[in-house]
Amino acid sequence: MTAPGGPAPLPNRKDVVQHTDNAPWWRSAVIYQVYIRSFADGNGDGVGDIAGIRSRLPYLRDLGVDAIWITPWYTSPMVDAGYDVADYTDIDPLFGTLADAEELIREAHGHGIRVIVDVVPNHSSDRHAWFQEALAAGPGSPARDRYVFRDGRGENGELPPNDWRSTFGGPAWTRVPDGQWYLHLFAPEQPDLNWENPRVRADFERVLGFWLDLGVDGFRIDVAHGLIKAPGLPDLGPDGEDVLEPTDRVDHPHWDRDGVHEIYRAWRRVSDRYPGQRVFVAEAWVANAQRLARYLRPDELHTAFNFDFLRAPWDAARLRDVVDTTLGTLGEVGAPATWVLSNHDVVRHVTRYGRPHTEGRGPRHDVSEPLDLEQGTRRARAAALLMLALPGGAYIYQGEELGLPEVEDIPEERLQDPVWERSGHTNRGRDGCRVPIPWSGDAPPYGFSTAEDAEPWLPQPELWKTLSVERQSGDPASMLELYRSALRLRRENPALGDGAMRWNDTPDGVLSFSRDPGFTCVVNVSGEPYELPAGAEVLLASGDLDGGRLPADTAVWLATS
Predict the structure, then answer these.
(1) Spatial CA neighbour of 254 closest among 282, 292, 226
(2) How does pLDDT run across 274-291, given as a tens digit for each residue?
(3) Residue 109 pLDDT
(4) Going by C-beta distance under 8 Å and a sequence separation of 6 or more, which residues neighbour residue 227?
(5) pLDDT in tens, 366-408
(6) Residue limits of the Glycosyl hydrolase family 13 catalytic domain (predicted)?
(7) Average pLDDT score, the chain
């Protein structure tokens, strides 16, 4: 157990190459996202848990990741899969105990893996003691001021205070028996906290300290672009709201307000008091890269997810533009890029790349379009090598190293995402990327659970038996072995990780860049084979090469002089 306030144990792995002298670990880190409900079930109830994560730490070590990010494990009614937090300093019994969490942190550090946990500051659960106290205390009370309560409009206050909509569908306001309304930008069970209240700010600084004292290495900040609302709560107008839909408005009444930066400067002061290079990563869906860079100024957060890269279609010009804009804009504030292809809120990229229109702003996608999984898998393999060769860090969403596609045929009665109900059954939501991953065997639960007869919380498709860790291990042509090889080479090669790159001249549809010393990545996004430079040594390719030519939808890493 880590002593309160003491340093997080440093990784003891011997295969780490420090790419830049004295550079913080997070500038080059490959971080694996563990969606706790779907990673591994250690107690046989069909839901992933801390025991399951602990049992799979050797797998993560051997995969070659530097850290894991664990989605919320706090006490919760689970209306939104744990993102409705009822106690920020305890573990939900569904996942284990606080002692289990401490042991996981200790064991992960022993394997050389750092641990990042989610923090959910925009809203709590309606079951949180703070909100229950606010309901009981009544209008005008200090307890009620922890949340965003307002009187309604209309002659008798029967209309919501403004026209804001929930990102999950429906109105963003719910009326309570005494007549006031409370704001919830997500589900009604997730009331928004009032970040203008100093007590809220102090409470969350204590929450950060609690987990830092236990030895966590950082935090992923959920809805980091939320928190602050415009004075007077003005109407939004005709702009629609959708889950994970980045706004194009710079002066939005409740997203990306300038006041959030004061909060994060205070958080940075908290983390800087701890040794071990603790880190923040922001989930900030903002209008452009310039707005994102504001979160990463030297006295604010360390890193942020690069959703422009995730959303980019399989198009060379668009990909290059995202890379250039990201590196240029973040470089101005001294921040590293972080590259990401999938997460628990968006359609898995194997499926996105397998459809004609691959650009997406959130979980919505057109399932009526033809799906070519072979093409999607081929492009996903190439995209992995592109992502892992770019300067900065990278995030891997559990199962992407297995090439898992989106599960699009979950029976309606099994859907659990609140988006499904809140949208009036018009948006199936995000469950398709959250299906428990396969480890072994030919039938559900495919090694996901310690109980062979356990029914996973979301149904697994028959396809999973061909994509399990067991089936792919040792197969040099598998997605898993591609990721293992790429991560090993990334750790060994001093050219990779944080640093600089330069583009090479290529025809339209081909991306080629070099990094010193002696490394080149080439990605063929065109429909025609591309002649590779003569004399280069192939370190790794995402698919078979055609002699000295790089086929379409294929990437290669080269050792060059």
Answers:
(1) 226
(2) 999 999 999 999 989 999
(3) 98
(4) 121, 122, 193, 195, 257, 259, 260, 263
(5) 677 889 999 999 999 999 999 999 999 999 999 999 999 999 9
(6) 33-434
(7) 93
The reported pLDDT for the residue numbered 239 is 64
498 is catalytic: no
Q: Cα separations (Å) of 138 from 130, 180, 181, 203, 261?
A: 13, 9, 11, 21, 31
List C-alpha distances in Å: 234 to 144, 187, 280, 286: 21, 21, 31, 19
Percent of the chain residues topping a pLDDT of 70: 93
* Catalytic member of 283, 345, 406, 417: 283
Measured CA to CA, the distance from residue 194 to residue 254 in angstroms comes to 12
DSSP assignments along 459-493, one per residue = PPPGGGGGSSHHHHTT-TTSHHHHHHHHHHHHHH-
In the residue annotation, 406 being an active-site residue is answered as no
DSSP letters along 394-428, please? EEEETTGGGTPPP-----GGG---HHHHHTTSS--
φ/ψ of residue 57, rounded to 5: -60, -40
Which one is catalytic: 41, 92, 192, 222?
222
Cβ–Cβ < 8 Å for 434, 367: no
DSSP letters along 80-117, please?
Answer: TTT-S-SEEEEE-TTT--HHHHHHHHHHHHHTT-EEEE
pLDDT in tens, 502-537: 999 999 999 999 999 999 999 999 999 999 998 899
Instruction: Please give the sequence-ordered ranges of beta strands (E in DSSP) within 253-382, or none if there are none.
Output: 279-282, 303-304, 338-340
Task: List helix spans (H) across 273-334.
Answer: 289-293, 307-311, 316-331
Query: For helices 198-214 and 98-110, what crossing angle results, to 10°?
Result: 50
